[in-house]
Structures are given as structure tokens and as C-alpha cells.
Automatic annotation (TrEMBL):
Protein name: Uncharacterized protein
Endpoints of the signal sequence: 1-22
Species this protein is from: Mucilaginibacter pallidiroseus
Keywords from the UniProt entry: Signal
Length: 259
């Protein structure tokens, strides 16, 4: 049982420290709305960590837990956190969907947060505030009720932000541009909080790729990031990097896109 708890704790650490495959996607619509998705795939990390477990642990009912479920993000908030939300933050959380796909036997651990922003102002508010909303560790609510006590005790942290680190960006979003710039002072604070966990992941050879995809309704005129790839019709921008690269040079995540 200790080994199983270790796996769940490490899964929690993976989520907290961004030791995952991260994909951030923006799908803009002609009416000005935008679907935004933060996807976190911890499957590779789980595969590595599972090798630490004994066969007896892998044979336990807890290890056999498999869930593919979604729920309102507001429903995932701890009561103490929900009580502190402003009316606007409550609306934002209620309009977001949290999805969890977990199957330890198949080395699957995926979490996503989806939201539909009504306009640019709504989108800018969302991306600047979503990281401030803590939720219960996703590992807690994927199991049946009889397993919850075990899983809750095993969780590395009872509350966490699923988009940890997003608060180090400054945004400027209009009909004619999408600007995102890393605030170096906030990024330094992020490294102080997560640096040790990132180092552990690196020591265990856990990759941390980071991908951003933006689909626009009109062609891109200009972009400042040489690592970004523009599609043939100039309506899609894809930026792929890794947390290692971001740590070395946070500016690799800067995007100034003119439409």
C-alpha cells in the first residue's frame, strides 16, 4: 500500500510541478468567442513511476481504478476556496469543465480544463485568473466512494491550481492581436516554488514538453517568435518547446501575434 501511495503522491507532484505533456489550445470563432483548453498528459510520468511498484501492489483493487469522467470546475473547488471567490470568479469556474481520464494499469493519466470565452475581454480575464483558482487534487475524485479515503490520504496536496504557472504571463488580447509576455519576476517566484520538483522530474528523465496552438479566423500578419510555426493558410500558430527551454530562457514563450 505504501508503494501505491507513493505513485499517487508522485502523480500529484507531476501535476503541481508541470512534469507533464502540456497542450494549450485556443480556437477562435467568427462571432468573437473562443474555446480554450488546457490539457495535461501525465501518462509518460506514470509509466516511469509504475516501474517502482511491486507486482503485489499492481494487483490491488486501488491500482485497478479506471475513470473517464468530467464535471463542472466549480464542483471541484474545496468549500474553503469556493467561499473566497468573487462573483466573476464563480461565474468563470461554473462555466468551465474539468475532465479526468485515469487508468493506472494502462499508464493513462490525463486532465483537461475547458472554457468558452464569449469575447476577447472574457478570454483575457479567464487566462489571467484561472491559475488563481485551486481545486481538489484530481486524483481524489476519480475513484469510487469506498476508495476516496485512501486516495485522499495519498494526495500530495489537497488543493492545487491545475494551471500552475499561468500567472506569470501578461496578456493583451483584441480583435487585431494576441500578445502574451512572460513576467520575469513572477516567473522567478514560480521557479522558487516548483524548482525542486522540476529537478526531480529531470533526474528521472521525465520530459516536460509544452505546446501552444492558436487557431484564428483570419490570417496572421506578423509574429515575433521565431520558434512559432504558421500554417500554410496563416490561420494557425503552433509553438512547441519544453520546460527545460523555458527555464533557461522564459522569453521563448513570448508571443506577439498581429492579425
Amino acid at each position: 500500500m505504501k508503494s501505491l501511495r507513493l505513485l499517487l503522491i508522485l502523480c500529484g507532484i507531476c501535476l503541481l510541478s508541470s512534469c507533464v505533456d502540456i497542450e494549450e489550445r485556443y480556437d477562435f470563432r467568427p462571432d468573437g468567442s473562443c474555446n480554450i483548453t488546457y490539457g495535461f498528459d501525465m501518462s509518460k510520468a506514470v509509466s516511469i513511476l509504475t516501474n517502482l511498484l511491486t507486482d503485489s501492489v499492481k494487483a490491488t483493487p486501488q491500482f485497478a481504478i479506471a475513470k473517464d469522467t468530467s464535471l463542472n470546475l466549480y464542483a471541484a473547488l474545496p468549500d474553503s476556496s469556493a467561499a473566497k471567490l468573487s462573483a466573476e470568479e464563480m461565474r468563470m469556474a461554473s462555466a468551465s469543465k474539468l475532465a479526468v481520464n485515469m487508468d493506472l494499469k494502462r499508464n493513462v493519466m490525463k486532465v483537461s480544463v475547458k472554457h468558452e470565452a464569449k469575447n476577447n475581454a472574457d478570454l483575457q480575464y479567464y487566462v489571467q485568473h484561472i491559475s488563481t483558482i485551486p481545486v481538489n487534487n484530481p486524483i481524489e475524485f476519480v475513484g469510487p466512494d469506498k476508495d476516496k479515503k485512501i486516495i485522499t490520504r495519498a494526495a500530495a496536496a489537497k488543493e492545487t491550481s491545475l494551471t500552475l504557472g499561468q500567472d506569470y504571463y501578461a496578456y493583451e488580447i483584441t480583435d487585431k492581436k494576441f500578445y502574451r509576455t512572460v513576467d520575469k519576476s513572477k516567473f522567478s517566484l514560480f521557479l522558487k516554488k516548483a524548482g525542486a520538483k522540476l529537478a526531480v522530474a529531470k533526474a528521472m528523465f521525465i520530459d516536460m514538453p509544452y505546446k501552444v496552438v492558436l487557431n484564428f479566423t483570419k490570417p496572421v500578419r506578423k509574429i515575433n517568435n521565431p520558434k512559432a510555426v504558421i500554417s500554410a493558410d496563416r490561420r494557425q500558430v503552433t509553438l512547441e518547446t519544453s520546460m527545460d527551454d523555458v527555464i533557461k530562457n522564459p522569453a521563448v514563450m513570448n508571443l506577439q501575434i498581429d492579425l
